[in-house]
Amino acid sequence: MSSLVIVGAGPRGVGLIERIAANAPELYDGSGLDIHLVDPHPPGGGRIWRAAQSPLLWMNSHAEDVTMFTDETVTMEGPVREGPTLHEWAGIGGRTFADRQLQGEYLGWFYERAVAALPAGVRVRHHARRAVRVVGAREGRQEVWLERGSPARDGGSSAGVAGVGGGYEVLHADVVVLALGHLDAELDDEQRALAAYAGRHGLVHLPPDFTADSDLSALVAGEPVLVRGFGLAFVDLMVLLTEGRGGRYEGEVYVPSGREPVLYVGSRRGVPYRSKIGYDLVGERPPLPRFLGPGEIDRLLALEGGFDYRRDVWPLIEKELGFAHYHRLFAAHPERTSMDWADFEEKYAAGGGADLRALVAEAVPDPRDRLDLAALDRPLAGERYGSAEEFQEGLRGHIEADLTRRHDDAHSVDLAVFLGLLSVYGQLIRLGGGVASSWHGFFSYLASGPPGPRLRQMLALSRAGVLRFVGADMEVRAEDGVFRASSPTVPGAVVEARALVEARLPEASVRRALDPLLRGLAEEGAGETGEGLLRVEPGTGRVLDADGRAHPRRFALGPYTDGRTPGAFTRPRTGGPAFRQNDATARAVLGLLCGGSGGVEGFGGAEGAGITGTAGAGTTGGSAGVGGSGGSEGAGTTGTTGTTGGPTGTGGSRDIVGEVGA
Asked: Bias regions of kind Gly residues — which residues (predicted)?
């Protein structure tokens, strides 16, 4: 009996099970397979999308833009297995922003369906506990150490789980896949210093965290609270501290309960993420990819000495997004252009730099119709306001203008650029750790912003005085027994508070992760990027060591790897980068388990290998060794990461929570 352990039962882990079920009829001819799914949270939603969270917290996408199923646009070797979007499954309006409880139920249903589709002889067992270590020789079976807890949830025995001293149990695995999702992290130097300062002076400091898990009870009604971060984590915080404390909206007016603190929010950009787009694309889609496709990625990967993100990659991103923008402008609004499209396209393809800017100026008379990525990225750059009150009015005007534009198809070039962003992300994944972190922040800011109604609530809260805007490049100082915040956007203005909240997810870093399993991989030599991400093989997700060797038995998927994607689920018919990765990894895993000989066998035992010095260490004897390290490398690509250059990120925030949709 072969054994696969998947650590992480969120959308990524259960999406892998769906791809195993889809590919097994073709690739797996073993006599049986036990799949052990390890996660203290329920399968499907995992931690982030679990159903057990506040009903006030919404999805970040329209229900029609959320799917866990592949379609014909996903480039992969495995078969397409279509299924309902969230709105089709739940029977709700496609334009609804469903709450996360409903999404958790959808993901749970998806998991049950994926398990039901597995071939006879393949069983799934959910272990509702944490995995804390993976050990084992490269050539032998792996051991996954679990904290003791409730028994495996399969309605049957727990065969294949061996006891181990020191309060742990062990799963013996032929293959291990890590699908850990967003993880807690130890504080960096700045956060440690702020936390220590808060402790000495009786202040409140809430470090980066998944907002739904943060203890907000220490934030006092009526008192100022400084908030760094203006993305999706802030939106959750805003909701839980207003409606979550009994406030309500009456049309465009917020009626406070009196239990709210006063939130002073700022960030590097100083503005919220751009609103979700509120209309559909009518007519021809931009033919993407055009200037950044597989061929360009191949050339970048083949460059002698490697590629430079700023020099080699960002210009291709700019040109691709510009092409999407102008293709839509010429197709949908030809009256706002002064050149034939065929002529423009030919010159655009050949041009670059100043020549390209001159072409756009000639062909697009109104500067408001031209794509300016720098201005989009940093709308407050160089802006100065005479007073804090003047800035409140100014930023409300910015939010209102963004809402108007993103819900008016006269500006459908914005939706074309959104599609361009999705296309670019799908290509950049192949570059792994060579892509700048600024790219991820830029993508999230433009493509993964909040629902329009959330921004309208933001405006109502601002008018009610519950929400105040600080500005761009917000600086926080700990001095004189308090926290103080300022921004060059409003010279001289200083906000003083006894509470500071870091409204963003913890940085994805292997060595700073609090997860002991991931830290253990780093300690034994797993490869890391300069940003601390786990290095994985682009085609299959195999974990790489510091020398670039792929581990034959360990795979990893998710935001802590350099193959990260914009989300574990996505918009239908947009290529689904995570689905491509899941398919490639599933095929590689199945090929490895089969070993090309009708089963996994003959590997010889590495039982009880390799762990010493841990409390009660030393495993019990395991089952007979298994093997067969051959098999398909899998196909498909995807991933992305960042370095320097291009648009700036939002204060290093990793605020993609797992969904993108217009």
From this structure: 622-652
CA 627 to CA 605: how far, in whole Å? 9
Q: In the block, which residue shows the tokens 């993100």? A: 309
- Among residues 28, 186, 49, the alpha carbon closest in space to that of 122 is found at 28
* 170 Cβ neighbours under 8 A, 6+ residues apart: 143, 144, 145, 146, 161, 162, 163, 164, 619, 620, 622
Query: What's the pLDDT score for residue 621?
Result: 30
Residues 354 and 420 in one domain: yes
Looking at the structure, do residues 306 and 324 belong to the same domain, yes or no? Answer: yes
Q: Tokens 């956007």 map to which residue?
A: 489
CA atoms within 13 A of residue 181's CA, in its CB half-sphere: 28
* 10-residue stretch averages of pLDDT, the chain, 662 residues long: 96 97 91 94 94 93 96 96 98 96 97 96 95 93 86 43 63 96 89 97 96 95 98 97 98 97 98 96 94 96 94 97 98 97 97 94 98 97 98 98 97 97 92 82 94 98 98 98 98 98 90 89 88 90 94 94 86 92 97 61 30 31 29 31 34 34 40
User: For residue 195, what pLDDT is reported?
Assistant: 97
75 and 172 assigned to the same domain: yes
CATH (domain of 31): 3.50.50.60
Residues 171 and 217 occupy one common structural domain = no
Which SS3 state, helix, strand or coil, does residue 552 take?
Answer: strand
Return d(Cα 435, Cα 315) in angstroms, integer: 13
Contacts of 572 (CB under 8 A, 6+ apart): 64, 65, 67, 69, 71, 85
What is the rounded distance in angstroms from the CA atom of residue 113 to the CA atom of residue 125? 15
Q: Alpha-carbon distance 550 to 544, whole Å?
A: 4
Which residues are CB-contacts of 65 (< 8 A; sequence separation ≥ 6)?
A: 85, 571, 572, 661, 662
Classified as helix, coil or strand, 255 is: strand
SS3 for 282-331 is: CCCCCCCCCCCCHHHHHHHHHCCCCCCHHHHHHHHHHHHHHHHHHHHHHH
Strand order in the sheet with 33-38: 122-127, 33-38, 2-7, 175-178, 550-556, 542-544
Distances (CA, A) of 463 to 416, 432, 456: 33, 44, 11
User: Would 632 be classed as within a structural domain?
Assistant: no
| Residue 619 domain flag | no
Question: Among residues 120, 179, 95, which one has the least CA distance to residue 453?
Answer: 95
CA 208 from centroid of its chain's CA atoms:
15
How many domains does the chain fold into? 3
Residues 239, 460: Cα–Cα separation, whole Å: 12
- Is 172 in the same domain as 312? no
- From 458, 475, 502, give the residue that closes a domain: 502
Say if 143 falls within a structural domain.
yes
650 in any annotated domain:
no
Asked if residue 145 and residue 37 are part of one domain, the reply reads yes
Rounded Cα distance between 104 and 106, Å, is: 5
The answer to whether residues 442 and 334 belong to one domain is yes
Q: How many Å separate Cα 148 from the centre of its chain?
A: 30
User: What domain range is 491 assigned to?
Assistant: 202-274+450-502
For the purposes of burial, counting CB atoms within 10 Å of the CB of 182, is it exposed (0-12), middle (13-18) or buried (19 or more)? buried
Ramachandran category for residue 11: left, alpha or beta (phi over 0 → left; psi -120 to 50 → alpha): alpha
Claim to verify: residue 309 and residue 369 sit in the same structural domain: yes
Residue 507 CB partners (closer than 8 Å, separation 6+) = 185, 188, 208, 532, 652, 654
For residue 538, cis peptide bond before it (omega within 30 degrees of 0): no
